[in-house]
């Protein structure tokens, strides 16, 4: 019965369209390209072996034949191989495209809509950059676009469907295909309206996916602005408006060192840096500026020496929380431009103990109650019960919020962050149920050396003091801080057992 309840709490948030397309997507089986392999010429460039690919910090060398379905490192690695976003870096680019075409009939994951969307854009950009006009490759591009148009990811939605829309619109312009353009542009408008929140944040609330999609929209805007075949100035202006909003949000959550918080499914080495995105944006006439964060649920509070990023919002859109973590009320803190309290990050999408831990409340800078998650994350990308928040205080110096993620346990967590002055941050946690075990976690950057006393953590630059009715005991241990997929470094973690209704944490920067 517990499993039935979990499935219900997960599935009840799906839209009717998602349910219909989930069923249809399973019934129609794997995608197959309408392509006659016998038309592939024999006098094409051949690959010089061995050839090596490195994705997600995992390296594979093919000695005599590229396996475009290589699955030993997981589906995301296979996806990356099939994206072809590495094309401009390869000295054998054209040969690799031809090899992919030769193996069309045996392709599996690479023909799914998401990698197809990215590959279409990467092939097109490469061909235009290199001035290559190749009838065979163009015909294959056309066949891939036709496949994408017939298999848009309505069953998933989210960033996948937005990538589909960008690719279909771009390739419709490339082939001057009116029906594709009408479908792609309509989907694009719909998804931008749904997925870009009023403060400019992407509704899946991952800063790294936000970077990826902002960069994608900049490329799309450039294509639309240069389009003379069937110009749609209204669409171009709409994409410009949404891209500008996303750029403003990105500026607002980027720390002074140029990094973004690694919250939800965010990982190093996946997306262009904010600085690179802004440089591209300015070449296209954008002038981003920081804005007040609202419905994305994040806040950035700053002093001249401290930067505090906090999560007081939804874990994600109800119908698509796949990249969400159970991290309500977690925070990230930089002092003097350097990371101090960090999010442990994401190192894998593979279902298993590491993925389960990285999504859990215990892997974030907040409090667990009865050793449970504040939102019911499970499997690799599923969420059942979701924490909801209300925010009675929301100022540049103080934010207070309450979430109901533990309401089923008759518990309520309220947290208040307050800058007392430029060098002092106070965090106050309040609970209503004394009978439930609570554990408070703080995760520190791997570069820090810390020592712990009875109720204090010290470094050379700051002190962290814990205040409660009883004497809280601080335990320092270690954890693995993620630095990209399949890469980590050992760092310090503080753990406190909470036995009183109120606990204060005070960060004081040394003068």
Named at the architecture level, the CATH assignment of the domain at 1-25 and 297-511 is Distorted Sandwich
Mean pLDDT: 95
Strand count, sense and barrel status of the largest sheet are: 8 strands, antiparallel
Strand content: 15-25%
Cα-based radius of gyration, to the nearest Å = 24 Å
User: What is the fold named in CATH at topology level of the domain at 1-25 and 297-511?
Assistant: Beta-galactosidase, Chain A, domain 5
- Extended strand count: 20
Q: Order of strands across the biggest sheet?
A: 10-11-12-13-20-17-16-15
Q: What is the terminal separation in angstroms?
A: 57 Å
Briefly note the structural class of the backbone. alpha+beta
Oligomer: single chain
User: In CATH's first tier, which class of the domain at 1-25 and 297-511 applies?
Assistant: Mainly Beta
Low-confidence stretches: none
- Indicate the percent of residues in helices: 25-40%
Number of helices: 12
Query: So what's the overall shape?
Result: elongated
Topology of helices and strands:
Blueprint: H1 2-11, H2 16-27, E1 51-55, E2 58-62, H3 75-83, H4 93-102, H5 113-130, H6 135-150, H7 158-175, H8 178-195, H9 207-226, H10 233-253, H11 274-283, E3 298-302, E4 306-311, E5 331-335, E6 338-341, H12 353-359, E7 367-369, E8 377-378, E9 382-383, E10 389-394, E11 398-403, E12 413-421, E13 424-431, E14 438-443, E15 451-452, E16 456-458, E17 462-467, E18 475-482, E19 488-498, E20 502-509
Antiparallel strand pairs: 1-2, 3-4, 4-5, 5-6, 7-14, 8-9, 10-11, 11-12, 12-13, 13-20, 14-19, 15-16, 16-17, 17-20, 18-19
Helix pairs in contact: 3-5, 5-6, 5-7, 6-7, 7-8, 7-9, 8-10, 9-10, 9-11
């Amino acid at each position: 019965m517990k499993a039935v309840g979990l499935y219900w709490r997960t599935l009840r948030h799906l839209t009717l369209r998602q349910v219909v397309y989930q069923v249809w997507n399973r019934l129609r089986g794997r995608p197959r390209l309408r392509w006659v392999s016998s038309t592939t010429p024999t006098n094409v460039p051949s690959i010089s072996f061995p050839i090596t690919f490195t994705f997600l910090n995992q390296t594979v060398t093919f000695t005599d034949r590229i396996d475009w379905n290589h699955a030993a490192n997981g589906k995301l690695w296979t996806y990356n191989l099939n994206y072809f976003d590495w094309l401009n870096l390869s000295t054998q680019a054209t040969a690799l495209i031809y090899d992919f075409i030769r193996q069309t009939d045996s392709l599996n994951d690479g023909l799914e809509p998401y990698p197809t969307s990215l590959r279409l854009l990467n092939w097109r950009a490469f061909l235009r950059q290199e001035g290559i006009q190749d009838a065979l490759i163009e015909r294959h591009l056309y066949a891939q676009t036709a496949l994408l148009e017939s298999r848009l990811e309505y069953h998933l939605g989210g960033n996948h469907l937005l990538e589909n829309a960008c690719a279909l619109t771009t390739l419709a312009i490339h082939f001057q295909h009116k029906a594709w353009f009408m479908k792609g542009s309509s989907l694009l408008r719909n998804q931008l309206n749904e997925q870009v929140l009023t403060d400019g944040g992407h509704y899946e609330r991952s800063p790294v996916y936000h970077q990826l999609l902002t960069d994608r929209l900049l490329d799309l805007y450039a294509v639309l602005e240069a389009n003379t075949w069937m110009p749609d100035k209204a669409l171009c202006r709409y994409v410009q408006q949404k891209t500008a909003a996303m750029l403003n949000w990105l500026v607002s959550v980027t720390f002074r060192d140029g990094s973004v918080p690694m919250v939800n499914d965010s990982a190093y080495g996946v997306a262009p840096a904010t600085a690179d995105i802004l440089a591209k944006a300015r070449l296209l006439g954008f002038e981003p500026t920081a804005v007040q964060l609202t419905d994305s649920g994040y806040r950035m509070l700053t002093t001249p020496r401290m930067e505090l990023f906090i999560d007081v919002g939804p874990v994600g859109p109800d119908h698509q929380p796949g990249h969400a973590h159970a991290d309500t009320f977690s925070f990230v803190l930089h002092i003097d431009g350097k990371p101090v309290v960090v999010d442990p990050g994401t190192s894998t999408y593979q279902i298993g103990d590491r993925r389960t831990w990285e999504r859990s409340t215990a892997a974030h800078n907040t409090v667990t109650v009865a050793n449970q998650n504040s939102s019911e994350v499970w499997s690799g990308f599923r969420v059942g019960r979701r924490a909801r928040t209300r925010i009675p205080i929301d100022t540049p110096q103080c934010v207070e919020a309450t979430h109901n993620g533990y309401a089923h346990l008759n518990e309520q967590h309220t947290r208040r962050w307050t800058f007392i002055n430029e060098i002092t941050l106070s965090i106050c946690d309040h609970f209503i149920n004394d009978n439930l075990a609570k554990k408070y976690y703080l995760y520190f950057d791997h570069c820090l050396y810390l020592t712990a006393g009875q109720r204090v953590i010290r470094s050379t630059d700051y002190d962290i003091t814990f205040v409660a009715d009883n004497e809280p005991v601080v335990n320092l241990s270690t954890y693995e801080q993620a630095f990209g997929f399949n890469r980590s470094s050992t760092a310090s973690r503080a753990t406190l057992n909470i036995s009183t209704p109120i606990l204060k944490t005070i960060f004081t920067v040394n003068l």
